[in-house]
Amino acid sequence: xxxxxxxxxxxxxxxxxxxxxxxxxxxxxxxxxxxxxxxxxxxxxxxxxxxxxxxxxxxxxxxxxxxxxxxxxxxxxxxxxxxxxxxxxxxxxxxxxxxxxxxxxxxxxxxxxxxxxxxxxxxxxxxxxxxxxxxxxxxxxxxxxxxxxxxxxxxxxxxxxxxxxxxxxxxxxxxxxxxxxxxxxxxxxxxxxxxxxxxxxxxxxxxxxxxxxxxxxxxxxxxxxxxxxxxxxxxxxxxxxxxxxxxxxxxxxxxxxxxxxxxxxxxxxxxxxxxxxxxxx
Length: 281
What we know:
The protein is of the alpha/beta class. The chain has ten helices and nine strands. The protein folds into two domains: 2-159, TIM Barrel; 171-259, no CATH class. The longest helix is centred in the middle third of the chain and has 19 residues, at 108-126. The two termini are 28 Å apart.
């Protein structure tokens, strides 16, 4: 069992400590640079959880590894590389995100080489591998096989699992995802300060047109947030999406959302991915 802890959240440290005390096997951390993650883990010495940052390229991977090595005498147990075709918050500039949305993304293969090269000195120093898992635009088992041939340890999939029976999002959320397909995906400005990929819901259109009323109150969910100066409250917008509120929701999704054609199960998706992966060997 692993948890995803967002550095940008106000309860980040408490969330990590709680997860470690509960016995999770891994903490994956992004939405910022998790430079303090090993220090939080050290507060729970009984935990043997793996610690893994989410990065967008070699520069971030090198910085995190360098800081962890110098301050804590350790390096990441593994790394998740999220490319510019991922859903949700992106570790790229708005221009890079828009280029990717226009069909001109930075190559995930090039980013993988960049990250592996950045981690090479630390693999040598600690005499062990630092596996890199790729995410963002990995389209099924064949893409995963190609990335693994290029040095990835595996792949992370997300959007396709929203349209499964087991996903705890509302049925309306799933229907919206299937209805909108890939014809209605855009890059949106987030109160976190990062660009994000989402469906162009009425909320997103109002933000683009600068007609969206700002939040009336702040729940204090984010550290880097303009509070009441933000064009919308991301906490409220994500909850609205989870409930299937098309008018007021922020529906994060990957660039390949149009290839999600029907409802399925987690088992069916896993079988499909693995069948494609084996066929590509």
